[in-house]
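Action item from last week, closing it out:
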Amino acid sequence: MHRPLIRYALILAGWVSLGLAVLGAILPGLPTTPFVLLAAACFAKGSPRWHAWLLSNRWLGPMVKDWEAHHALPLKVKWLASAMMTTMVGLSAWRLAGRPGLQVLILSLAFIGLIVVWRIPTRR
């Protein structure tokens, strides 16, 4: 009984992660890539069919294939992600002028995000 329950929980977690990834493509401050990779991991364990679908997706498939093959990010991708994150967080902090608590929160979360990106192994 636990096996089917775990399988369905993994599939649900994969779809929730994929939904958050789509939102991350639209909303500043919400990352896309980590949620796509989390969805891929959930689908790989819970549903080979959905994992294959994700791998064959023309927008998300190359990212997942690259991660599964190397478990590292190219240096160029790290710099691009850092620049985009810094730009969007900077704009968000600027828009929140007069709300220092939110500015500190956003800047702190961005700093954590940058640490996470740069801790991922680099592929040359």
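Closing note: The chain has a mean pLDDT of 92.
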